[in-house]
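Raw record, unedited: Transcriptional regulator, GntR family
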Amino acid sequence: MKINIERNSKTALYLQIKNQIKDMIYLKRLPLDYILPSERELAKTLHVNRSTVVKAYEELKAEGLIDSQIGKGTYIVFCDENTLKNKSPSFRKHLFWDEIYSKNSKNNHNDVISRIMDIGNNKIISFAGGIPSPDLFPKSEFQKVQIKLLKDEVENMFLHSPVTGYKELKKEIKNLMLNREVRISTNNIMITSGSQQGLDLIVRAFVNPNDIILVEEPTFFGAIQLFEALGAEIVAVPVDEYGIKVDALEYLINKLKPKFIYSIPNFQNPTGITMSLERRYELISIIEKYGIPIIEDDPYGELRYEGKDLPPLKALDKNDYVIYLSTFSKVISLGLRVGWIVAPERVINKLGSFKQLTDLHVNTLSQYMICEFLKQGCYENHIKKIKKEYTFKRDLMVNELEKNFTEIEFYKPQGGFYLWCKLPNNVDLNLLLKKSIKNKVNYIPGNFFYAKNKEKSNFIRLNFTYPKRKEIVTGIKQLRNSLDEITKKEM
């Protein structure tokens, strides 16, 4: 529907809109039941005030040409006698899509992940996303990788690959896992579109509606949303400074007989806590005692800034109770979308049957590029580089918080992406977030990291890897200003 606005015309803007729509109706360019743009949408398209479109639509309604209905929108109701005569008796009116969604999809899953991923379109300092610094992407190394691939592998890297992943990349991941003290074969590996797809495949393969999954409290909101979307019941297990509390875990296992345990042992999202070695051994002992498998999510394990490296749970797992997830998204690039699963071969084969129903295989070009990046020995140097910068950024954010706030408590992580900050109980976090966004600073409120979003949390999660150094300084000051502004209002 094309409307031309003449701003120099003596005819009012709303009449120009009304008359052109009216002409299109009479000329049958807009048929019966045609859905018009919403008032807000048309106003944006025509660069006019919404009230202008509202007035035009009101006049068209008064003349019996259009009507509005909740759930349907604004639509054409005028038709002449010939149209009525020729209208088929089987003619159906506008389809109400909302009425035919599946029962599960009618649940309003929060779009927090989509909003985080859309930060590139906003002029805002973002402490919200779990996103690596775009400034640290190894451009020159990947340029060399691309040149070599275009010379040697140009035919293969644009073809399909096996469902479980490109074999050469699986060999490189096998070596990578050996550095993490995990001995496996390539048959134990599946390449995925990031670790989120890996988690989705695992849950779809094993979890039935109403099955119980034990998770750390708090935990990654993407996992919470996925478990809830597939009908699982989430039960939270408290954590302390050493990781998941095994006494509470054992009590819940005895009481509830869960299907799975989900854990992030290294630099946990959102708290940044690292599970102690003793706690890891205790956890493995418990899952073997009760026969409960565990999903180990390890996207941040390479990003240790101080202290000693600890073996993943998978390295301590001698009887195949642990399914391990990791990704290159946090250390190289989100855009390449390459992660992996480590599991028993029979489990990998089962997951492969689910994977082929969705995307067949991970982007072949991305797999070849990361494989060559690993083969050329670039990965180790890149990890050293980003760890140095992220250590600086973490310490910078810590210093700025200490300088600007006396009322915020936080845990300084030994690695990872986040600071988990506790604000006073009397702070209205909803109001603080609105004010902060108005002041061009974004972050994630703590309530997203609790099952069913019911926990009244006085925490916020701040990411220090994505923003530039100057943005960290400016953003923390703006957060301070936002807190001061809402505090003054309450007084």
